[in-house]
Amino acid sequence: MNGLDIDAYLAWMKEAKAGDLEALERLLAQASAFKRERSVEWRIKGSGLKDRKTMASFVWDFQPRLDRRAVENLFTLAFAERHEDLLITGKSSTGKSHILKALTLKACEQEWMVRYARCVDLVDDLFAGLADGSYPQRMKRWCRATLLVIDDVGLGQLKRRDEEPTAAHMLFTLLDRRHENASTALSSNIKLSAWGKYLGDATLAAAVLERLVENSVRIDIDGPSYRQHLARQRAEQQGLTLPDEDAP
What we know:
The chain has helices at residues 6-16, 20-47, 68-74, 78-81, 96-109, 119-132, 135-144, 167-178, 195-199, 202-214, 226-237, and strands spanning 85-90, 114-118, 147-153, 183-188, 216-221. It is an alpha/beta fold.
């Protein structure tokens, strides 16, 4: 049987002097565990998640104003089971992506169909679909996920072409199809009022946000940049001084 350590299994049988029924139960349990492990790994690889984060490595003390209970409650995945959306906002490098990546991993471990992408990469994929005629199929694949994670809205340059739909149009179509049918989790490092400019259509961006606000969990991380903190530590070790984050 693939994935089963036969030598270890036979050694256990000999040492435990297991009867036929006990041996069969252990064999089936190991086969089930191996099958689940393969399923989880397949889902993680298929999700698009490139680096695996867990909340065990999240530095809570660095964001003391963050509601830890609210964040930890996300990992019950109850919001997704209720088909609610999730929107995490805050400045760059405050932990938004860490939380979403850990959520992606958690949902994969529950053997859910999950897709993770940065906003700019998702939009690029849909634009590629316009170019090769596969847009409907690509949109359908993004819609199909039990949990769709869209990271970093506001980070990266989005394509804009006069003769093609805007990123706002694509996101609206995607979220409208998923609304109250499946959960979408997003993060953004820009103010919600700036989504219209970033996505290329203020009216549709407002409609996107209307969908999110209507049925979503909101978490705002009002704290310092961890990346800047690490950069400042390295600079101090070299005898340099970096300006404060809020300095003009």
